[in-house]
Amino acid sequence: MKGAFAIYGLAAVVSLYTGINFFIIGVAITLFYTVLNIKGTKEAAKFDVYLVSSIVLIMIPFVLFGYNKINWGNFTPFVTDGGGFNSIFATAAFVFIAFGGIMNAANVSEEMANPKRDIPRAIILAIVFVSILYTIILLIAIGVVPGREFINSINPIANAGKYVLRMPGFIIITIAACLAFSSCANSGIMSSSRYPLAMSRDKLIPEFIGKLNKVTHTPVYAILLTAALIIIALSLPLKSLVEGASTVILTSYLLTDVSVIVLRKSKIQNYRPTFKVPLFPWVNILSLFLFSCLICHMGWDAIRISTGLVVISLLVYFLFSRKNKQKYALFHIVEKLRNKVLTSEVIAKLFFK
To answer: What is the pLDDT of residue 330?
Structure first.
């Protein structure tokens, strides 16, 4: 859904200036990045590096020339009486999709030369860099564009470029937006296709979906399945798509926190993570609380989507993986608790006959 959101944005910009049907453009973009990812992970990753590097280079003059033009009065009042802090929290949940790509590095760990070193480093650096970059760009955009115009604009960052660098700035920032959407679409297909790949290996879905191509060594069926789901998602209204994508990401992060707690507490012998969450389990518990709050602040639609995802996952589990006789991490925790109860009962019998 995050990949679909990126393709939606790119298709909308192209459609706005060409007049070509939005959905046709979206399907064409999806097919292009599908072919690129089928061709090879290395090629797709290199293409993404070029895109991101170009975006950063384009944004440098916008930041340098725009900062001195900020009207700090545009930030007053920072919190309105009607919305208050809750409106900030709800908006944070709504736009959480913008940070969803940060975790993509973990999804392609199998194709990395040194995942133990590269994944933690990539994620931490990405969070810091993206947070700083987003903050600076939004400060300039809100600071240079009048409030009413900013609210009604369909392309507010490009409008900010016009205020900073006149018409060349508008054109340059529009190009940067297209490159950003392209990068997000490409990495979205690349990372999302690794979920069905892993699920097929765990026998949660049919195994043929995870089959690798002998020439390109890419999961062709998983990539095609991802592309099909993206095309379906393109038919959704934009608000539903953004809410759905943000909810999917928030729910996956929430469940990841639960998984980390279960895995660490189970003390399975073959679970030896090279990177461990500091201050465990308090950081995970705080994350669970915050992600749950963000989902709730998005409203009942988000809660229904999140609950629906869990129900669908359970159905997939009962349809495909019940026959897969494995001891899960949660089973080890239950087993330990049961042993503790039995041990305490034995001790009680010895001392209190």
So the answer is: 64
